[in-house]
Amino acid sequence: MDTPKRSFPFGLILLGATATLVGVGLAVLVLSSSSAAQQSGLPILSPSTRALLREGAPAPEFTLKTLDGRPVALSDLRGKAALINFWASWCPPCLEETPALIAAYEELKRTNPNIEFIGIGTNDDRANLEKFAENNRIPYIIVEDPDGEVSDAYGVLGMPTTVFVDSSGVVRRIWNGAIKKEQVIEIMRGMR
């Protein structure tokens, strides 16, 4: 009786090699982003730490520059309720929600000076951000995050993303996607 020949498991070897290459690629990506964060002075957040950014957690500190070069830190806003909006001039839903953010900001600011909005232009060109802010007469703070380091620290996966931070620096709400004026006002009025 002949014993059946076993074929060499090339498919299994190919699968193992592919998994190894993917793992090495991810390791290189994590190490390079950690190195960039160290050089910028931002806190280093591993992917598992990013996943912990949730409502009720402290908002990661950041310092970014306004379009005219003035530094703005999240800690500068301690004592104020803050809306942090991650956006880009090339993002259609971001452009769509901008009038709602402007209207909400203006309405809220009339009745409560202890609020602030920060628009973080992410992975965008400064000239595009300046043109958009000027054309839309955006009244709130606009800063730039050209390499997306702060959006990475906040775990932003898509834009627009809006993070609501209370006066003590705690994340109270994370909103993914475009938001409406009424929603902004309701959330901001519910924060201290």
From TrEMBL:
Main localization (coarse): other
One Pfam family of this chain: AhpC-TSA
Keyword Transmembrane: yes
Thioredoxin domain sequence ranges: 53-192
Compartment(s) of residence: Cell envelope
A GO term, aspect molecular function: antioxidant activity
Domain of life: Bacteria
GO (cellular component) term, any one: cell envelope
Regions that span the bilayer: none
One record GO biological process: cytochrome complex assembly
PROSITE patterns: THIOREDOXIN_1 (PS00194), THIOREDOXIN_2 (PS51352)
Keywords: Cytochrome c-type biogenesis, Disulfide bond, Redox-active center, Signal-anchor, Transmembrane
CDD domains: TlpA_like_family
PANTHER family listed in its UniProt record: THIOL:DISULFIDE INTERCHANGE PROTEIN DSBE
Name of the protein in question: Thioredoxin domain-containing protein
Organism of this sequence: Candidatus Thermofonsia Clade 3 bacterium
Organism taxonomic ancestry: Bacteria, Bacillati, Chloroflexota, Candidatus Thermofontia, Candidatus Thermofonsia Clade 3
